[in-house]
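hiii so um. not sure if this is the right channel but i have a protein structure encoded as tokens and i wanna go backwards to a sequence. like what aa goes where. can anyone help
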């Protein structure tokens, strides 16, 4: 099942020389359970920094990030590492597939890294079928298009049944048609896998795909739009 993420009064300040650069300012939002949320913003708006806070890859300067009521900010480094391994899936702009492994082997390796036990075959084949690559399982990354590689990365990200899938600019290097296809697959994951999906993008053409679209400018949330008829409490 997915998970609800509640962000409260989040700030992130980076020391640069003798200066303090505030990248995120008083972020308050809810990423709803088992929905497809898009975090929109231009380069430098703070969306990747916010994604890194949510994924426990970085620590905020102040504020809290509640995952089903548990404050990620208060966890130890070991607890965060364990959380990332079990509860989170990640898809990045750079797909970072292992070039000497087939699509099947890349997904299988992610299951081993997550500590999943048992026979991997069914789950690996299932996830690759979900992303439309049933016929490409034994192909190497170099034999695949950019869109196909990104779909392998999605299969890899969801293989261990994470509660949350974080996708940081996964369509930035793709043409518009393939970007729309990858976005469609990510949205389908909320239904097929009951996973909470958060994707960052600056592509305005993808906005309608999000159940919720949160816009960042200058490190602040400036707008929240809902594309569903039912209202979701996404901004506290």
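sure thing!! here u go:
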């Amino acid at each position: 099942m997915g998970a609800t993420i509640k962000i409260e009064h989040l700030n992130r300040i980076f020391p640069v020389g003798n200066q303090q650069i505030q990248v995120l300012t008083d972020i308050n939002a809810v990423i709803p359970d088992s929905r497809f949320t898009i975090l929109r913003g231009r380069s430098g708006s703070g969306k990747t920094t916010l994604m890194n806070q949510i994924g426990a890859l970085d620590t905020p300067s102040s504020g809290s990030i509640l995952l089903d009521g548990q404050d990620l900010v208060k966890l130890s480094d070991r607890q965060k590492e364990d959380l990332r391994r079990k509860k989170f899936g990640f898809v990045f702009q750079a797909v970072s597939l292992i070039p000497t492994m087939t699509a099947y082997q890349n997904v299988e390796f992610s299951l081993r890294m997550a500590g999943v036990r048992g026979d991997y075959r069914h789950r690996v084949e299932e996830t690759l079928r979900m992303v439309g690559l049933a016929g490409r399982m034994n192909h190497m990354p170099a034999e695949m298009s950019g869109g196909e590689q990104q779909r392998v990365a999605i299969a890899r990200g969801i293989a261990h049944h994470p509660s949350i899938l974080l996708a940081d600019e996964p369509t930035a290097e793709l043409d518009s048609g393939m970007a729309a296809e990858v976005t469609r697959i990510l949205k389908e994951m909320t239904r097929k896998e009951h996973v909470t999906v958060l994707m960052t993008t600056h592509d305005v053409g993808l906005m309608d795909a999000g159940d919720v679209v949160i816009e960042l400018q200058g490190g602040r949330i400036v707008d929240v739009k809902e594309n569903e008829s039912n209202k979701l409490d996404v901004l506290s």
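oh and The beta strands are 5-16, 19-31, 36-40, 62-67, 70-71, 88-92, 164-168, 196-201, 212-217, 220-226.
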